[in-house]
Amino acid sequence: MSDSPPSLVSDSPPSPAPTPVSSSPKPGVAERSISNSSWEDILLWKKKKQSLSILTASTLTWVVLQVYQYNFITIASWVAMAILAMMFLFGNLLRLLGKDPPKIDDFAISEELVMGSAKRLKGNVEQGIRWMFSVSSEKEWFVFAQAIGALLVLSQVGRYFDFVTLLYMGVVTAMTVPLMYVKYEDQLKKFVGKIRAQGRAYYEKVDEKVLRKLKHKAGFAEKKKEKKVE
Questions:
Q1: Of the candidates 43, 53, 102, 147, which lies 20 to 30 Å from 212 by C-alpha distance?
Q2: Phi and psi for 46 in degrees, rounded to 5?
Q3: Closest among 129, 160, 135, 134 to 150, alpha carbons compared
Q4: Measured in Å, how far apart are the chain's first and last C-alpha atoms?
Q5: What averages of pLDDT result for each successive group of 10 residues across the chain (230 residues)?
Q6: What ranges in the chain are assigned the alpha helix state H?
């Protein structure tokens, strides 16, 4: 009785095909890039309607609160009353016309929006703390002096302007400075380069005439103490 030839077909199940690795970016990175690009478009006036609406709303808010001296709680109450009156009239009008009023149950704030806002706030706070530590541990005195000088100027400005005015000035600056920088980038870079060169030159002079002499005197005094101890 002849032996049967060995089977070429394996009894084990076929191995699954490797899953293709998607090269698409992560959702968080994609959302951040989209939000950053949209804000850049607003600040650079590529979306003119949104940019104009933000600048107009901030200007009206500042005029009402600062020029006419209205209280924020009073303005918020008036706005809330106006919204309630409009919704009341709109609902009654729909009932008179025999239509269903809008469903309030469908209105909800998405969890993604809340989590995204919280993550952006957390990232900004962490970035500010990291900046403070990096400046405080910086070896160059020029960077430290720049940070202290900027904060000193901000504190002096805060003595003459209240929070609402400073906030409005920040909005106006954010809506105008990036656009001007894009238009006159080369001229501004040359001007900033000259200022930095002059600042470093002044710092080197102070370092040579004052700081090095103080270090030399401190080292000479330490050597005298060591000799006295011996």
A1: 147
A2: -80, -30
A3: 135
A4: 109
A5: 47 51 49 64 88 92 89 90 92 86 74 88 90 74 80 86 89 89 85 85 76 64 60
A6: 27-43, 48-62, 72-96, 111-136, 141-160, 163-183, 185-206, 212-229
